[in-house]
Amino acid sequence: MHPRDKEIWRAIDQGLRAIDWEAWFGCPEGADYLSPAGHEVTARAVAGLTAFFNSR
């Protein structure tokens, strides 16, 4: 797990942050299995889901 994801999920667990699409998808820097195109698609998916469903 990427250190940034740990911080995000710790804050969510402590009630300091709400779960959002970025948290669900995780930090793209830690997603070594994604190609550059996969990173772009992930960013677009987060933006699209946030725009359609809001951040929560």
Layout: helices, strands, pairs:
Blueprint: H1 3-13, H2 21-25, H3 36-53
Q: Which structural traits does this protein have?
A:
mainly alpha; 3 helices
Residues in helices, as a percent range: 55-70%
End-to-end distance? 22 Å
Count of DSSP strands: 0
Low-pLDDT segments: none
Give helix and strand order, one letter per element, not per position.
Answer: HHH
- State which percent range the strand residues make up: under 5%
- The averaged pLDDT comes out at 89
User: Main beta sheet, described?
Assistant: none
Radius of gyration: 12 Å
Q: Given the structure, what is the number of helices?
A: 3
Q: Kindly name the structural category.
A: mainly alpha
Shape descriptor reads: flat
Give your account of this protein's structure:
This protein has helices spanning 3-13, 21-25, 36-53. The mean pLDDT is 89. The chain contains 3 helices and no strands. It is flat and about 35 Å long. The chain has 56 residues and is mainly alpha-helical. The longest helix has 18 residues, at 36-53. Helix content is 61%, strand content 0%.
In short:
This protein is mostly helical and 56 residues long. The protein has helices at residues 3-13, 21-25, 36-53. It is flat.
